[in-house]
Structure formats: structure tokens, C-alpha cells
Amino acid sequence: MNHFQYKNGELFCEDISVSAIAKEVGTPFYLYSKATLTRHFKAFDSSFADVDHLTCFAVKSCSNIAVLSLFGSLGGGADIVSGGELFRAIRAGIDPKRIIYSGVGKSVEELRYGLKSGILLFNVESEQELHRLNSVAAEMGVTAPVSFRVNPDVDPKTHAYISTGLSKNKFGIPINESLDLYIQADDMANIEVKGVSCHIGSQLTLISPFVETLRKVKGFVGRLEEKGISIQYIDLGGGLGIVYDDEEPPHPQEYAEAIKEEMSGLEATLILEPGRVIVGNAGIMVTEVQYTKTNRGGDHEKHFVVVDAGMSDLSRPSLYGAYHAIQPVKEDKAVFQVVDIVGPICETGDFLAKDMAFPRVEQGDLLAVLSAGAYGFTMASNYNSRPRVAEVMVAGDQFKIIRQRESMEQLIQGESIPEFVEK
Ligand SMILES: Cc1ncc(COP(=O)(O)O)c(C=O)c1O
Ligand SMILES: N[C@@H](CCCC[NH3+])C(=O)O
């Protein structure tokens, strides 16, 4: 359930019509519903209410500080993967003791920043990272709290580009080779071993890969205990899928029940890193039709709806062939035709939808691209020198721009013409 619904033929976000927002903000823009964000966060988090757990929202999925601050106020922490995300999380008021740091390529500077900030855990992804972290911590005279991200070699049965827990993926340390690393880390002066973490992929629609992973982790924790290494945190990562089209992902409650059953007997705090399941259907992208056209070949004709948002604003369709439902903001359009909905960017791969049966729309009509709250704005770029779009949050009958549309000046901010180029 989300708060993007039609009322009298007009799409509303909570109590405000999307057209009214577009009139003030211009297009394109991302639009988030506070009530939906809150509802989805609580639905996930409260499913684990009876176990010791921490929900660390995956910042990469939707990183606006207003969104992070909302989840912080609901008791959430943050799963970060860069110094930039750490900066955002702290600015949003998230307690560093609720921040965990994943990622295969943490730089010395980023490790230092994490240590200085006093984060809860570093999810270390390689032996070299462990050594780097130990020496940075030694140099700073502190101890680094560590989980290793183990790679359980479980097939998450999702898109190949967002599968992360197979042995052929770059993430984590093969679970079978991790024991020696734990023993090594346990002896290091500036490392405190605290947990085991994993994350097998994103947009999972089955529970079984999570359960298989947790079983492997559980077995591994037993082996660690035999070596005298006790584990305080078990981090299962994120990955629960959502409905974009006709998927049937499990409800967070079902997911939680399966996990809790497997966790029984373990004395550790459970950490979860959900992203998409919380924000995916709490945000849409609004775009305006610029042109419609038909390109005819010998034996075919192709209809295009050209809109003012493209792959630089929402890259998922181009990057993964991902499906996003698209609907006109005004519902009264009745004649359907099969169209490609494309952006203004000079790439054939710049599309938001391909061969979609779509009501006949006209120049100036507003379209809502649904399920755009996760990996939407955060994956936007300035390709074709397009300023990044605005982000807006609605709460009831109010809305606020939570990120201004970029200006032309911001587009070239930091650029300069050196003397040896100037005429
Ligand atoms: C380490 C890590 N944690 C959490 C997530 C969040 O995943 P999702 O948005 O699928 O819940 C990701 C992204 O897949 C990730 O790489
Ligand atoms: N960017 C991906 C998800 C990647 C998750 C990161 N580990 C998507 O849009 O589906």
C-alpha cells in the first residue's frame, strides 16, 4: 500500500495533486511520500520487533538527508558504502553507533573518517582491507570494530548485475576461506572482531536464498566459537524485492518469520540493511511529454513519446532493462497505442519504457514513473550536461523541495580553463 492514488481522475501524493506540485516545481522531479516512507520503514522494522535487531537503511538506495533523517527519527541506522554516504548519514543526524560501513574499495581516507566518527562496524571485504584498517587504526590509536562480509556462494535468483553473493561476484570473502582471516584478525592489536555479515543481492523475490545464507552463516559462527571467537552481530544485508510489475515478493513479515526461526539459538544482534523494500514504492518520478512522433520504416511504424526525463535521471531501464510502470497523471486518456517512452539523451538506450501499451498522450501531459524511490535519484548523472532534477517530499497536504533542481552554474561548478588553454 502506498499513498500515490487517483482521486477524481487526478494522481495524488497523499493529499496533494501531482499536477499542483509540478506547476510550482517544474519537471522532471522525484516525489516521495512521507507517509509511505514511514509506513514501509515501520512495516519492515516492526516485523523484527521481538528480536534484538538494528535496521540500517541502505543509504545508496535513496540518500537525500531528509529521507535519512526521517528513518533516523524512527530508530533506524544506516548502511553506508562511501565517505560521502557517511557524511550524509551524520548530517541527517543518524547516530554513528548505528552506522555500518560496507563496500569492497574503502580508501585510507574513508577508513580514517569512519574510525574518527566512531561507527558501529566496518564490514571488511578482503584481507588487504583488514591490514589497511588495522594500520590506520594503529596510527590513530584506536581499535576498529569489524565484521567480515562473507560470500556464501548462494544464488539469489535475481538480475545478474545485482547478484552479489555468488563466488564469481567481487563481494566479500569466500565463506570457506574466512576462518583463517578471523583468526588472524583476532590477534591484531587494533582490530576487534565483532560480527559476520553478508549481502547476497537485490530485488530477491524468494525467501529460500536468505534462509540458505543464514544457515551457512550459522554453521560458520559455530566454527568460530570452537576457535574461541564469539560473534555479537550477524548482518544479513538487504535485498528483499518489491512489486514493479507482476513480481510476488514475500511480505517483510514472512521474511522476518523465516529469519527469526533460523536465528533461534544464536545470541547475536541481527543487523538488516534494507533499501529498496522501504523506499522503492514510496517514490515516483514525474516527467512531462515534450513531443510525440512516429518513425516509419518499410514494413513497420514505431510510436515514440519523448519526455523531459531520461537515463541520466532514472537509469534502471537502460542499465538493467528494468520495468517501471508509467501512468499519465490525468486518468482520462482512453485510446491506447504501443509506444516507447524515451528521454532527450543522445543514446538509443535512453528509454524509460519499451513497447508499452500506453494511453495516447499529448505535448504537456504529465507522466508518473512509478516505483522510482529506490536507485532512482541516487543513480542520476549529469550526462549530456543535464542538471540533476529536484526531489520533493509530501506530508499530508504540504510539500517541500528537499533538493533543489541543479542550476547551469552548478553544472560547471569546480571546472576551470587553465592558462595554457586560454587564448
Ligand atoms: C551491502 C549492501 N547492503 C544493502 C543493500 C540494499 O539492498 P536492497 O536495496 O536490495 O535492500 C545493498 C544493495 O544491494 C548492498 O550492496
Ligand atoms: N542499482 C540496483 C541495485 C543495486 C544494489 C546495490 N548492491 C538497482 O537499481 O536495482
TrEMBL record:
Keywords: Amino-acid biosynthesis, Decarboxylase, Lyase, Lysine biosynthesis, Pyridoxal phosphate. The keyword Amino-acid biosynthesis applies. It catalyses: meso-2,6-diaminopimelate + H(+) = L-lysine + CO2. Its EC number is 4.1.1.20. The keyword Cytoplasm does not apply. The modification N6-(pyridoxal phosphate)lysine is found at K60. Its cofactor is pyridoxal 5'-phosphate. Specifically catalyzes the decarboxylation of meso-diaminopimelate (meso-DAP) to L-lysine. Belongs to the Orn/Lys/Arg decarboxylase class-II family. LysA subfamily. Homodimer. This is Diaminopimelate decarboxylase. It comes from Desulfotalea psychrophila.
